[in-house]
Please model this.
Amino acid sequence: MSISGIMQLRQNFFIILLFFGMVLSGLIFLNNNQKSCKQQKIEQIVINLLYNQPSVLVGSRTDVASVSSWSAPIIWEGTFNPILIDSIYKQHNLTIATTVFALGKYTRFVKDFLESAEQHYFVGFRVHYYLFTDQPESIPEVKMGENRNLTVLKVQSLNRWQDISMSRMGKLEKLIENELANEADYIFCLDIDTKFYGRWGVESLGRLVGVIHPWLFDAPRDRFTYERRPESQAYIPAGEGDYYYAGAAFGGSLEDVHQLTKTCREKLHIDAANSIEAVWQEESHLNKYFLLNKPSKLLSPEYMWRDINEKLAQIKVIRFSNVAKNYAEVRPNP
Model:
Protein backbone atom coordinates (compact mmCIF):
# COMPACT_ATOMS: atom_id res chain seq x y z
CA MET A 1 0.00 0.00 0.00
CA SER A 2 1.26 3.46 -0.84
CA ILE A 3 2.19 6.01 1.77
CA SER A 4 -0.82 8.14 0.79
CA GLY A 5 -3.09 5.12 1.33
CA ILE A 6 -1.65 4.51 4.77
CA MET A 7 -2.14 8.17 5.64
CA GLN A 8 -5.77 7.97 4.49
CA LEU A 9 -6.38 4.91 6.68
CA ARG A 10 -4.90 6.67 9.68
CA GLN A 11 -7.09 9.70 9.03
CA ASN A 12 -10.21 7.52 8.76
CA PHE A 13 -9.25 5.70 11.97
CA PHE A 14 -8.87 8.97 13.90
CA ILE A 15 -12.22 10.22 12.54
CA ILE A 16 -13.94 7.01 13.73
CA LEU A 17 -12.19 7.19 17.08
CA LEU A 18 -13.26 10.81 17.48
CA PHE A 19 -16.85 9.93 16.58
CA PHE A 20 -17.09 7.16 19.16
CA GLY A 21 -15.45 9.37 21.75
CA MET A 22 -18.10 12.02 21.18
CA VAL A 23 -20.89 9.42 21.44
CA LEU A 24 -19.44 8.01 24.67
CA SER A 25 -19.07 11.49 26.15
CA GLY A 26 -22.68 12.24 25.24
CA LEU A 27 -23.92 9.06 26.94
CA ILE A 28 -21.93 9.82 30.08
CA PHE A 29 -23.31 13.37 30.11
CA LEU A 30 -26.90 12.16 29.69
CA ASN A 31 -26.49 9.57 32.45
CA ASN A 32 -25.02 12.09 34.86
CA ASN A 33 -27.67 14.60 33.90
CA GLN A 34 -30.45 12.07 34.57
CA LYS A 35 -28.94 11.24 37.96
CA SER A 36 -28.65 14.94 38.74
CA CYS A 37 -32.27 15.58 37.69
CA LYS A 38 -33.46 12.64 39.80
CA GLN A 39 -31.52 13.89 42.82
CA GLN A 40 -32.87 17.39 42.29
CA LYS A 41 -36.39 15.94 42.08
CA ILE A 42 -35.93 14.08 45.38
CA GLU A 43 -34.50 17.20 47.02
CA GLN A 44 -37.34 19.34 45.67
CA ILE A 45 -40.01 16.94 46.97
CA VAL A 46 -38.41 16.86 50.42
CA ILE A 47 -38.01 20.65 50.47
CA ASN A 48 -41.67 21.17 49.51
CA LEU A 49 -42.96 19.06 52.41
CA LEU A 50 -43.95 20.91 55.53
CA TYR A 51 -43.15 19.19 58.81
CA ASN A 52 -41.99 20.11 62.29
CA GLN A 53 -38.28 20.61 62.81
CA PRO A 54 -36.69 17.45 64.26
CA SER A 55 -35.11 17.81 67.68
CA VAL A 56 -31.94 16.19 68.96
CA LEU A 57 -32.90 17.06 72.53
CA VAL A 58 -36.48 15.84 72.84
CA GLY A 59 -37.75 12.48 71.56
CA SER A 60 -41.20 12.05 70.04
CA ARG A 61 -41.90 9.19 72.50
CA THR A 62 -40.85 9.24 76.13
CA ASP A 63 -42.79 6.16 77.26
CA VAL A 64 -40.84 3.62 75.18
CA ALA A 65 -37.29 3.04 73.97
CA SER A 66 -36.86 4.09 70.35
CA VAL A 67 -33.32 2.76 69.90
CA SER A 68 -31.61 -0.48 70.90
CA SER A 69 -28.32 -0.75 72.79
CA TRP A 70 -26.54 -1.34 69.44
CA SER A 71 -28.12 1.83 67.95
CA ALA A 72 -30.79 0.10 65.86
CA PRO A 73 -34.03 2.13 65.65
CA ILE A 74 -37.15 0.65 67.25
CA ILE A 75 -40.19 1.73 65.24
CA TRP A 76 -43.24 2.91 67.18
CA GLU A 77 -46.12 5.18 66.29
CA GLY A 78 -44.86 8.74 66.66
CA THR A 79 -41.20 7.96 65.90
CA PHE A 80 -41.43 8.69 62.14
CA ASN A 81 -43.19 11.02 59.72
CA PRO A 82 -45.09 8.79 57.25
CA ILE A 83 -45.50 11.48 54.57
CA LEU A 84 -41.83 12.42 54.65
CA ILE A 85 -40.50 8.87 54.66
CA ASP A 86 -42.86 7.81 51.84
CA SER A 87 -41.72 10.73 49.70
CA ILE A 88 -38.10 9.67 50.09
CA TYR A 89 -38.57 5.96 49.36
CA LYS A 90 -40.95 6.42 46.40
CA GLN A 91 -38.08 7.80 44.33
CA HIS A 92 -36.24 4.46 44.54
CA ASN A 93 -38.84 2.41 42.63
CA LEU A 94 -38.75 -0.43 45.16
CA THR A 95 -40.37 -3.86 45.04
CA ILE A 96 -41.15 -5.67 48.28
CA ALA A 97 -41.50 -9.46 48.07
CA THR A 98 -43.79 -10.90 50.73
CA THR A 99 -44.07 -14.60 51.55
CA VAL A 100 -46.82 -16.48 53.38
CA PHE A 101 -47.61 -20.17 53.88
CA ALA A 102 -51.19 -21.49 53.82
CA LEU A 103 -51.28 -25.26 54.23
CA GLY A 104 -54.28 -27.39 55.18
CA LYS A 105 -57.03 -25.45 56.94
CA TYR A 106 -54.90 -22.30 57.01
CA THR A 107 -56.17 -21.44 53.52
CA ARG A 108 -59.21 -19.94 55.30
CA PHE A 109 -57.03 -17.01 56.40
CA VAL A 110 -55.83 -16.03 52.91
CA LYS A 111 -58.71 -13.75 51.95
CA ASP A 112 -58.58 -11.55 55.05
CA PHE A 113 -54.80 -11.40 54.93
CA LEU A 114 -54.64 -10.24 51.30
CA GLU A 115 -57.63 -7.90 51.44
CA SER A 116 -56.33 -6.17 54.56
CA ALA A 117 -52.81 -6.04 53.12
CA GLU A 118 -54.11 -4.26 50.04
CA GLN A 119 -55.54 -1.59 52.33
CA HIS A 120 -52.59 -1.11 54.69
CA TYR A 121 -49.38 -2.88 53.57
CA PHE A 122 -46.84 -0.76 51.63
CA VAL A 123 -49.64 1.20 50.02
CA GLY A 124 -48.38 3.01 46.91
CA PHE A 125 -45.41 0.66 46.46
CA ARG A 126 -44.83 -2.41 44.32
CA VAL A 127 -45.57 -5.60 46.25
CA HIS A 128 -45.29 -9.19 45.02
CA TYR A 129 -46.90 -11.79 47.28
CA TYR A 130 -45.62 -15.37 47.14
CA LEU A 131 -48.13 -17.79 48.63
CA PHE A 132 -46.98 -21.35 49.40
CA THR A 133 -49.87 -23.81 49.66
CA ASP A 134 -50.75 -27.47 49.24
CA GLN A 135 -54.19 -26.48 47.91
CA PRO A 136 -53.85 -23.95 45.06
CA GLU A 137 -57.43 -24.61 44.03
CA SER A 138 -58.65 -23.31 47.42
CA ILE A 139 -56.98 -19.91 47.16
CA PRO A 140 -59.67 -17.23 46.65
CA GLU A 141 -59.37 -14.47 44.08
CA VAL A 142 -58.56 -11.15 45.66
CA LYS A 143 -58.50 -7.92 43.68
CA MET A 144 -55.00 -6.48 43.61
CA GLY A 145 -54.07 -2.84 43.19
CA GLU A 146 -51.73 -1.42 40.58
CA ASN A 147 -48.23 -2.93 40.73
CA ARG A 148 -49.43 -5.57 43.21
CA ASN A 149 -49.17 -9.24 42.25
CA LEU A 150 -49.78 -12.70 43.72
CA THR A 151 -47.88 -15.86 42.78
CA VAL A 152 -49.22 -19.16 44.15
CA LEU A 153 -46.59 -21.88 44.66
CA LYS A 154 -47.64 -25.46 45.32
CA VAL A 155 -45.83 -27.35 48.10
CA GLN A 156 -46.20 -30.76 49.69
CA SER A 157 -48.71 -31.35 52.47
CA LEU A 158 -47.24 -32.12 55.89
CA ASN A 159 -48.78 -33.99 58.83
CA ARG A 160 -47.38 -31.89 61.70
CA TRP A 161 -47.59 -28.13 62.12
CA GLN A 162 -44.10 -28.29 63.61
CA ASP A 163 -42.82 -29.74 60.31
CA ILE A 164 -44.57 -26.96 58.39
CA SER A 165 -42.83 -24.41 60.61
CA MET A 166 -39.41 -26.03 60.27
CA SER A 167 -39.65 -26.42 56.47
CA ARG A 168 -40.24 -22.74 55.79
CA MET A 169 -36.63 -21.58 56.07
CA GLY A 170 -35.46 -23.91 53.31
CA LYS A 171 -38.26 -22.86 50.96
CA LEU A 172 -37.58 -19.19 51.58
CA GLU A 173 -33.87 -19.72 50.95
CA LYS A 174 -34.58 -21.36 47.58
CA LEU A 175 -37.14 -18.73 46.59
CA ILE A 176 -34.60 -15.96 47.11
CA GLU A 177 -31.96 -17.88 45.16
CA ASN A 178 -34.17 -18.93 42.24
CA GLU A 179 -36.80 -16.24 41.85
CA LEU A 180 -36.08 -12.98 43.63
CA ALA A 181 -32.52 -11.97 42.75
CA ASN A 182 -33.70 -9.60 40.01
CA GLU A 183 -37.32 -9.28 41.10
CA ALA A 184 -37.29 -7.52 44.49
CA ASP A 185 -35.31 -5.17 46.72
CA TYR A 186 -36.63 -6.29 50.11
CA ILE A 187 -38.50 -9.27 51.48
CA PHE A 188 -40.82 -9.82 54.43
CA CYS A 189 -41.82 -13.27 55.64
CA LEU A 190 -45.19 -13.22 57.41
CA ASP A 191 -47.68 -15.67 58.93
CA ILE A 192 -50.97 -16.09 57.05
CA ASP A 193 -53.25 -16.34 60.11
CA THR A 194 -52.99 -12.59 60.53
CA LYS A 195 -54.69 -9.38 59.49
CA PHE A 196 -53.58 -5.79 58.89
CA TYR A 197 -55.39 -3.06 60.83
CA GLY A 198 -53.10 -0.08 60.22
CA ARG A 199 -50.22 1.22 58.18
CA TRP A 200 -47.21 -1.06 57.58
CA GLY A 201 -44.95 0.95 55.30
CA VAL A 202 -41.40 1.82 54.31
CA GLU A 203 -40.55 2.84 57.86
CA SER A 204 -40.13 -0.93 58.38
CA LEU A 205 -37.45 -1.38 55.70
CA GLY A 206 -33.91 -2.19 56.75
CA ARG A 207 -30.99 -4.49 56.12
CA LEU A 208 -32.18 -7.03 58.72
CA VAL A 209 -35.50 -6.52 60.49
CA GLY A 210 -36.91 -8.30 63.53
CA VAL A 211 -40.29 -7.83 65.21
CA ILE A 212 -40.49 -7.78 69.00
CA HIS A 213 -42.89 -10.45 70.25
CA PRO A 214 -46.15 -9.11 71.77
CA TRP A 215 -46.16 -11.60 74.65
CA LEU A 216 -42.74 -10.72 75.97
CA PHE A 217 -41.91 -7.15 74.94
CA ASP A 218 -42.11 -5.93 78.54
CA ALA A 219 -40.70 -9.08 80.20
CA PRO A 220 -37.23 -9.67 81.68
CA ARG A 221 -34.99 -11.99 79.66
CA ASP A 222 -35.24 -14.83 82.17
CA ARG A 223 -38.88 -15.19 81.09
CA PHE A 224 -38.05 -15.43 77.39
CA THR A 225 -38.99 -18.81 75.94
CA TYR A 226 -35.61 -19.41 74.31
CA GLU A 227 -34.33 -22.92 73.65
CA ARG A 228 -32.46 -23.74 76.88
CA ARG A 229 -31.03 -27.18 76.05
CA PRO A 230 -27.33 -27.01 75.15
CA GLU A 231 -27.79 -29.95 72.75
CA SER A 232 -29.76 -27.73 70.34
CA GLN A 233 -28.21 -25.35 67.82
CA ALA A 234 -30.81 -22.81 68.99
CA TYR A 235 -29.49 -22.86 72.57
CA ILE A 236 -29.30 -19.53 74.38
CA PRO A 237 -27.96 -19.71 77.96
CA ALA A 238 -29.75 -18.11 80.88
CA GLY A 239 -28.65 -14.53 81.40
CA GLU A 240 -28.21 -13.88 77.66
CA GLY A 241 -30.51 -12.36 75.05
CA ASP A 242 -31.68 -8.95 73.90
CA TYR A 243 -35.34 -9.23 72.94
CA TYR A 244 -37.66 -12.10 72.12
CA TYR A 245 -38.49 -11.91 68.41
CA ALA A 246 -41.64 -13.20 66.73
CA GLY A 247 -41.19 -15.91 64.14
CA ALA A 248 -44.41 -14.70 62.50
CA ALA A 249 -42.73 -11.67 60.91
CA PHE A 250 -39.18 -10.87 59.86
CA GLY A 251 -37.51 -9.38 56.80
CA GLY A 252 -34.82 -7.21 55.28
CA SER A 253 -32.67 -7.10 52.18
CA LEU A 254 -32.57 -10.18 49.96
CA GLU A 255 -28.92 -10.82 50.82
CA ASP A 256 -29.42 -10.63 54.57
CA VAL A 257 -32.64 -12.64 54.68
CA HIS A 258 -31.05 -15.26 52.43
CA GLN A 259 -28.20 -15.63 54.92
CA LEU A 260 -30.69 -15.83 57.79
CA THR A 261 -32.82 -18.53 56.15
CA LYS A 262 -29.76 -20.50 55.01
CA THR A 263 -28.24 -20.48 58.50
CA CYS A 264 -31.49 -21.42 60.25
CA ARG A 265 -32.16 -24.19 57.74
CA GLU A 266 -28.69 -25.63 58.35
CA LYS A 267 -29.11 -25.44 62.14
CA LEU A 268 -32.55 -27.08 61.95
CA HIS A 269 -31.05 -29.95 59.94
CA ILE A 270 -28.25 -30.41 62.48
CA ASP A 271 -30.81 -30.60 65.27
CA ALA A 272 -32.89 -33.10 63.28
CA ALA A 273 -29.83 -35.28 62.72
CA ASN A 274 -29.30 -35.25 66.49
CA SER A 275 -32.97 -36.09 67.16
CA ILE A 276 -33.73 -32.78 68.83
CA GLU A 277 -36.41 -30.22 68.01
CA ALA A 278 -36.11 -26.70 69.39
CA VAL A 279 -38.93 -25.67 71.71
CA TRP A 280 -40.43 -23.24 69.19
CA GLN A 281 -38.92 -24.73 66.02
CA GLU A 282 -37.87 -22.03 63.54
CA GLU A 283 -38.72 -19.20 65.95
CA SER A 284 -36.12 -20.56 68.40
CA HIS A 285 -33.48 -20.63 65.66
CA LEU A 286 -34.52 -17.15 64.50
CA ASN A 287 -33.93 -15.82 68.02
CA LYS A 288 -30.51 -17.45 68.16
CA TYR A 289 -29.62 -15.92 64.78
CA PHE A 290 -30.73 -12.45 65.88
CA LEU A 291 -28.70 -12.77 69.07
CA LEU A 292 -25.54 -13.39 67.04
CA ASN A 293 -26.47 -11.14 64.10
CA LYS A 294 -28.15 -8.05 65.50
CA PRO A 295 -31.08 -6.69 63.46
CA SER A 296 -30.45 -3.29 61.91
CA LYS A 297 -34.04 -2.27 62.66
CA LEU A 298 -36.59 -3.48 65.20
CA LEU A 299 -40.34 -3.21 64.81
CA SER A 300 -42.38 -2.70 67.95
CA PRO A 301 -45.27 -5.03 68.87
CA GLU A 302 -47.52 -2.71 66.86
CA TYR A 303 -46.29 -4.79 63.92
CA MET A 304 -47.19 -8.16 65.51
CA TRP A 305 -50.01 -7.98 68.01
CA ARG A 306 -52.56 -10.66 68.98
CA ASP A 307 -56.29 -10.10 68.66
CA ILE A 308 -56.85 -11.72 72.06
CA ASN A 309 -54.42 -9.34 73.80
CA GLU A 310 -55.69 -6.19 75.46
CA LYS A 311 -54.34 -3.01 73.93
CA LEU A 312 -51.78 -1.57 76.35
CA ALA A 313 -50.92 2.08 76.90
CA GLN A 314 -47.67 1.82 74.93
CA ILE A 315 -49.47 0.44 71.87
CA LYS A 316 -50.91 3.53 70.20
CA VAL A 317 -51.94 1.65 67.05
CA ILE A 318 -52.25 -2.02 66.11
CA ARG A 319 -50.88 -2.44 62.61
CA PHE A 320 -50.71 -6.21 62.20
CA SER A 321 -52.10 -8.93 64.40
CA ASN A 322 -52.59 -12.67 64.77
CA VAL A 323 -56.30 -13.38 64.48
CA ALA A 324 -58.15 -15.32 67.17
CA LYS A 325 -58.55 -19.01 66.29
CA ASN A 326 -58.99 -22.48 67.71
CA TYR A 327 -55.53 -23.98 67.21
CA ALA A 328 -56.77 -27.50 67.92
CA GLU A 329 -59.22 -27.16 65.05
CA VAL A 330 -56.94 -25.60 62.38
CA ARG A 331 -53.67 -27.40 63.11
CA PRO A 332 -53.08 -30.94 61.79
CA ASN A 333 -51.83 -32.13 65.20
CA PRO A 334 -51.69 -30.85 68.82
User: Anything to note?
Assistant: The CA atoms of residues 208 and 252 lie 4 Å apart.
